[in-house]
Amino acid sequence: MNIPRRHAFDVGVAEAKEIQEMMRREVREGPPLDFSRVRLIAGTDISYLRERKLALGVAALLSYPELETLEVSTAALEVPFPYVPGLLSFRELPALLPALEGLSATPDLILVDGQGVAHPRGFGLASHLGVLTSIPTVGCAKSRLLGEAEEPGPEAGDWAPLRHDGRTVGAVLRTRRGVKPLYVSVGHLIDLHSCISMVLSCTRGYRLPEPQRRAHLEADRLKREARSRGSVCSR
Question: Which DSSP string do the residues of the chain spell out, in sequence order?
């Protein structure tokens, strides 16, 4: 796939925050997603080889609604940015973008292991990726970055609004009975109810939606393989 837009990631913390403040104005929460037009979904994930300062980016392309894995693309790059809360995208996008570019087809939607607008500056990893790619993106994180919410009900599909500063910024969504919920938020070019419906429609008995789960498994495999062999092969 082709990514139409880029900017520098080798920047300082202050400049990174300025980039977020500027680009968040481009985020569009909506419209509702037309599920009949979705044929391909990508899931993304990152693993780190901290001892070698490497980020291993993975993009898994699945058919929809069948959720058959069609292709997996990976990339390994040196981590260019320190760990700073709220600036995760500056650590992860340098590896995720080439992984996505390695896909032979462009997805209709991307599920991202990170926040969308449920972020201190309203511009988390999912929103950042969405603006750069101009593709609808869904933030589907394992932990909460900000906001308050009641505990959702116990059944898969139960959810509670995640609120911050008087507005709803996401949903705390139960995807499987007996497991911790996920934190779902709009990334770009989609509304929250469509995000929730999409995550649930991609869940197959696990906590993570299948495109993300497939990317996560590949990221873990890459890390184990790199540590055992002492090298990393991107594909």
Answer: ------------HHHHHHHHHHHGGG--B-----GGG--EEEEEEEEEEGGGTEEEEEEEEEETTT--EEEEEEEEEE--S---TT-THHHHHHHHHHHHHT-SS--SEEEESS-SS-STTS--HHHHHHHHHTS-EEEEESS-SS-B-PPPPSSTT-EEEEEETTEEEEEEE--STTSPPEEEEEEESB-HHHHHHHHHHT-SSSSS-HHHHHHHHHHHHHHHHHHHHS-----
pTM of the predicted structure, to 2 decimals: 0.94
How far apart are the C-alpha atoms of 186 and 138, rounded to whole Å? 5
Provide the CATH topology of domain 13-229.
Answer: archaeoglobus fulgidus dsm 4304 fold (3.30.2170)
Any idea which residue has 């497991």 for tokens? 179
pLDDT for res 232: 59
Q: Give the chain's mean pLDDT.
A: 95
Distances (CA, A) of 132 to 100, 116, 149, 195: 12, 13, 30, 19
Please tell me the distance from the alpha carbon of residue 19 to that of residue 191, in angstroms, as a whole number.
Answer: 23
Give the pair of three-digit tokens for residue 157: 């599909």
**Domain boundaries of the chain, sorted by first residue:** 13-229
Which has the higher per-residue pLDDT, 232 or 35?
A: 35
